[in-house]
Amino acid sequence: MNIVCLDMEGVLVPEIWIAFSEETGIPELRRTTRDEPDYDKLMNYRIDILREHGLGLREIQETISKIDPFPGAREFMDRLRDVTQAVILSDTFTQFAHPLMKKLGMPTLLCNELVVGEDGMITGFRMRCKESKLTTVRGLQSIGYDTIAVGDSYNDLGMILASKAGFLFRTTETLKKDHPELKALETYDQLYDAIAEVL
Predict the structure, then answer these.
(1) What distances in angstroms separate CA 119 from CA 16, 43, 115, 127, one per listed residue?
(2) Full pLDDT tens readout for the chain, 199 residues
(3) Which residue is catalytic, options 9, 91, 152, 156?
(4) CA atoms within 13 A on the CB side of 141
(5) Is 40 a catalytic residue?
(6) Is residue 9 flagged as an active site residue?
(7) Phi/psi of residue 108, each to 5°?
(8) Domains assigned to the chain
(9) Burial class for 117, CB neighbours closer than 10 Å (0-12, 13-18, 19+)
(10) Which one from 7, 15, 91, 152 is the annotated catalytic residue?
């Protein structure tokens, strides 16, 4: 029994923090897991910048409401779910993801949660579990699933390398160079065909 585990940002939808950086004109918020593999360090860095600029959850959600999935992402998800089970494993947060899931046809999403003060300021975050993508893939494998994983960043490598098959999608040249053993794909048709070959 197969299940496809997909990263969200960079694979199905644009990077939320990059969009917010562009909206606010704060270049430091462009950093993502492509730049900083240590997610805790990255999130604490982001929270410090938000606090410094007096920006809270409401402002980020306003930006998210304007984000659409990448062209073809919804159709890819619908096509994929016609032939196998799929789940999105993301380091994003429930407070960010819901409107994007609606635009993708409400696929299953496992992600994390922000800690938000009464004033709407983000004060922290709760990870669902340690190394959440890799831990979830191993959990799925422990109950009889063969996993196929897709991602674009350093924080996706654990689940990709631990899976029966794994693919880099629209990733960086650095990651391609560091992991030449992984097939790197650029279009949803290529990704669908690659997954279909290993089902």
Answers:
(1) 22, 19, 12, 22
(2) 999 999 999 999 999 999 999 999 999 999 987 788 888 999 999 999 999 999 999 999 999 999 999 999 999 999 999 999 999 999 999 999 999 999 999 999 999 999 999 999 999 999 999 899 999 999 999 999 999 999 999 999 999 999 999 999 999 999 999 999 999 999 999 999 999 999 9
(3) 9
(4) 17
(5) no
(6) yes
(7) -65, 130
(8) 2-13+70-112+129-198 (3.40.50.1000)
(9) exposed
(10) 7
Q: Which residue has the tokens 């997909």?
A: 6
Evaluate whether 131 touches 158 at the Cβ level (below 8 Å). yes
The identity of residue 72, as a single letter, is G
Q: What is the pTM of this model?
A: 0.92
Q: Which candidate, 29, 81, 70, 44, places its Cα nearest to that of 199? A: 81
Nearest residue to 182 (alpha-carbon basis) of 11, 140, 159: 159
| CA trace torsion 24, 29, 30, 34 (10° rounding) | -160
β-strands 122-126, 109-116: how paired? antiparallel
